[in-house]
Amino acid sequence: MKKIYIPVFLILAVSITFLTGRSFRVQQVPYGSKYSCNTCHTEGGGTPRNPFGLDVESRVTPGGNETFWGPDLAALDSDGDGFTNGEELQDPNGTWKQGDADPGDPTAVTHPGDPNDHPPIVSVEEELPVSNKFILFNNYPNPFNPSTKISFNVPVNSKVKLAIYNIKGELVNILADREYAPGKYEAFWSGRDDSGRKVSSGIYLYRLTAGNFVQTKRMILLK
Q: Which residue, 29, 31, 109, is CA-closest to 69?
């Protein structure tokens, strides 16, 4: 059998060309430097593309330098974790342009191609009191996809429970269940049940219970 020898310098040249040919793309994504080539690949340049990388690939030609980040890519949830690419990269509307300063909060950036890396599914933020009574505010946005914010006011130290139910009255998720000091709070629901699974489109109920206060409102998950 005839042996074929390939010069080492040729192998190196091809490898360098392959890796550097696409490295410029991390500069075309907000916070691209955080994950570098893993922004689009599973284990660095040259490895299979992750879900976000596949969506990028569909927008560029091989080796091309097209601008691909924008409102449409930002609005996608490439890795299916319940948060859009824009939400994960702190540019929910896709208005960032190459050369701009990275937007939003750098500590809140998560990987748009990794379903195991995402913002907290449920978080609560305390604000100043706005009223001397319990209030369950309308969620926003409504209808929503993939997440919505539910605000409530607590006038005195109270054990508060905020839960999500389906239209049949079956418990879906508990967003809050603890003691709260007086204040206005915000809880976020990403359309998942208590096991982390995405729920189907439809009408859902959110109920605030605090002592003798009970109030329920409706919201619509629209996919």
A: 29
Question: Is the per-residue pLDDT at 88 higher than 80?
Answer: yes
Which distant-in-sequence residues (6+ apart) come within 8 Å of 185 by Cβ?
124, 125, 126, 127, 151, 152, 153, 154, 176
**Could you count the other beta carbons within 10 Å of the beta carbon of residue 11?**
10
Provide CATH 2.60.40.4070 ranges for the chain.
Answer: 124-221
The C-alpha angle with vertex 15 and arms to 110 and 62, in degrees rounded to 5, equals 65
Q: With contact defined as beta carbons under 8 Å apart, do 124 and 147 qualify?
A: no
Tokens coding 10: 């040729």
Position 127 scores a pLDDT of: 57
Tens of pLDDT along 180-206? 999 889 898 988 888 888 899 999 999
Nearest-angstrom CA–CA distance, 49 and 150? 36
pTM higher than 0.85: no
In CATH, 124-221 is 3.20.20.70: no
